[in-house]
């Protein structure tokens, strides 16, 4: 027996004594070891309930669209992979992972339109805030996602995108006829007010080019978007004044 090519039984026995980091390095050695040791490392990860290793394994499997492994991890490591109870986990998923990863997790049971307390944001809110265009398109294409769902501050995803200056997201949502652009805030302000004071000049341009937004709309204090922008010293005021 060659020392460099031990039987599978010996490799598996050795793997039981390795740390998760050591197992991870061994997995990368070659395709044979990856196939051989995957069940072992998944079992170890689930036993140790390490959030770091569970998420690494989960996202790796989801990127490969390995639904069997994803489902197993979601079941066995539900204490640390609880997307229904942990909003930070779900937001981090949307913020950092690819559309493929998110799509695979949705197919394996992660809810697409769940609201988390206390902010009551949905996955669509986070996709809008973080500028995740591919993920946003995936969500709005689903029948079980409310494109106008409001968070704890009464903001729909469209307004979240405006406030975070996500121009491509705003453009995408403006093209969706289901999106309600007639939002009015607690002080009578409209989307253009929000764009003028919180968003970006590019977002202001998008709204100005859309006839559904009235540049002369006043809020409860008789302030137009131009006034609001000037009051806060926002550069968008110059764009508005030209209209």
UniProtKB/TrEMBL annotation:
Keywords, comma-separated and alphabetical: ANK repeat, Repeat
PROSITE patterns, A to Z: ANK_REP_REGION, ANK_REPEAT
Cited Gene3D superfamilies: Ankyrin repeat-containing domain
Segments annotated as ANK repeats: 119-152, 187-209
The protein's name in its UniProt record: Ankyrin
Native species: Choiromyces venosus 120613-1
Phylogenetic placement of the source organism: Eukaryota, Fungi, Dikarya, Ascomycota, Pezizomycotina
């Amino acid at each position: 027996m060659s020392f460099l090519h031990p039987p599978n039984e010996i490799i598996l026995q050795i793997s039981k004594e390795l740390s998760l980091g050591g197992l991870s390095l061994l997995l990368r050695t070659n395709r044979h070891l990856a196939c051989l040791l995957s069940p072992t490392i998944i079992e170890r990860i689930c036993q140790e309930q390490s959030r770091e290793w569970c998420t690494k394994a989960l996202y790796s499997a989801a990127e490969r669209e390995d639904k069997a492994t994803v489902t197993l991890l979601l079941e066995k490591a539900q204490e640390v992979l609880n997307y229904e109870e942990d909003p930070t986990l779900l937001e981090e998923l949307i913020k950092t992972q690819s559309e493929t990863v998110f799509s695979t997790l949705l197919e394996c049971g992660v809810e697409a339109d769940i609201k988390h307390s206390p902010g009551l944001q949905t996955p669509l809110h986070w996709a809008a805030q973080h500028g995740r265009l591919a993920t946003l398109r995936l969500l709005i294409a689903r029948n079980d996602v409310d494109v106008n769902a409001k968070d704890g501050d009464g903001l729909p995803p469209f307004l979240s995108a405006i406030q975070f200056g996500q121009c491509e997201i705003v453009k995408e949502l403006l093209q969706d006829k289901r999106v309600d652009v007639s939002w009015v805030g607690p002080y009578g302000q409209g989307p253009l007010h929000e764009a003028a004071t919180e968003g970006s000049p590019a977002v202001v341009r998008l709204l100005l080019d859309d006839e559904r937004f009235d540049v002369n709309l006043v809020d409860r204090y008789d302030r137009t978007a131009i006034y609001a922008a000037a009051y806060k010293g926002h550069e968008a005021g110059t764009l508005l004044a030209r209209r």
